[in-house]
Amino acid sequence: MGRVSVDLYAEQVGTPIRSVTSFRKSIGGTATNVAVAAARLGLHAALVTKVGDDPFGDYVRSALEHTFGVDTRFVGTDPDLRTPLAFAELTPPESPNLVFYREPRAPDMNLHPADLDLDVLCRTPTLWIPASRMAWEPSRSTVAGFLAERGRKPHVVLDLDWRPMFWPSEQEAGRRIGPLLDHVTIAIGNREECRIAVGTDRPEEAAERLLGRGLDAAVIKLGGDGVLVATPDGKPTTIPSYPVEVVCGLGAGDAFGGAFCHGLQSGWSVVEAARYGNAAGAIIASRLMCADDMPTLSDIDSLISISEGTV
Q1: Is the distance from CB of 29 to CB of 3 less than 8 angstroms?
Q2: How many helices (H) and strands (E) does the chain have?
Q3: What contacts 254, CB < 8 A, 6 or more positions away?
Q4: Which of 37, 223, 260, 264 is least enclosed, having the fewest CB within 10 Å?
């Protein structure tokens, strides 16, 4: 559940937008990319969001369904607002600049309880929610309401997803995101996102605070240092990264999310799921696009095999 947009990638890598002459179109948004990544790995993935009643909204719905195999039953249409755009300026490639066009507001900010199928939301085995859902009403109250209905039935994954452009301040973000931790089973975030959510960017301390809220697992992304995975029943495990030559830093976390969901759905441990996610994230970082370039099972298995020296 979360954002969707039409993403336009500068084809001249390393060039500022003022000098870019062409863009490549795709779809994007954190939750959207996670759904696409999960579907690419064979899962039945559905996206809960809204688009505008415009040609870009038609494109998003068509691309999700026909290109990426994502269930669009829960993609609503706002009659008044336009589908958002996001321009990716790949300067530098490893940390691109995103320019969002979501004015006066994006359709996905207007999720109401009537837009949801509570039966499906309560039954789905893995539910992925970016914390940026809490930046706006009515989506904020809608999310809080259905999470109360679902309870802490596994798996409810909170992507801590800190996007400063969506919030008036870090303090407000922390105030809104923090209470969600009492309704989810797994939290995933980088050091900065942990600082916003639980007040510290020290990985082990952040993991301890997250688990103290009753979570089954905390997954802390450490960039090039890998991922820290903590559960209540053991010592935290650090999973090393897979070194690659970075082409575009966008979407690595979303690829991680789709592969992590694949692991959960397969009955793997959280550590195994995170290791698979690490490999998926490395692969997408070595490619230009997000949704279009999400890895397959064979892509991920090949990278793991090569890294472990088994092929």
Answers
A1: yes
A2: 10, 12
A3: 30, 33, 34, 36, 37, 284, 290, 294
A4: 223
Model confidence pLDDT, tens digit, residues 144-184: 999 999 999 999 999 999 999 999 999 999 999 999 999 99
Rounded distance, CA 35 to CA 137, Å?
23
Pairwise CA distance, residues 7 & 87, whole Å = 6
CA 141, CA 159: separation in Å to the nearest integer? 18
Query: How many Å apart are CA 301 and CA 95, to the nearest integer?
Result: 26
CA 273 to each of CA 32, 45, 136, 258, 262: distance values in angstroms, whole numbers, following the listed order: 20, 17, 31, 10, 7
Amino acid at 102: R
Full set of structural domains in the chain with CATH: 31-83+105-307 (3.40.1190.20)
For residues 294 and 74, the answer to whether their CB atoms sit within 8 Å is: no
pLDDT tens string 100-131: 999 999 999 999 999 999 999 999 999 999 99
What tokens were used for 214? 């009753």
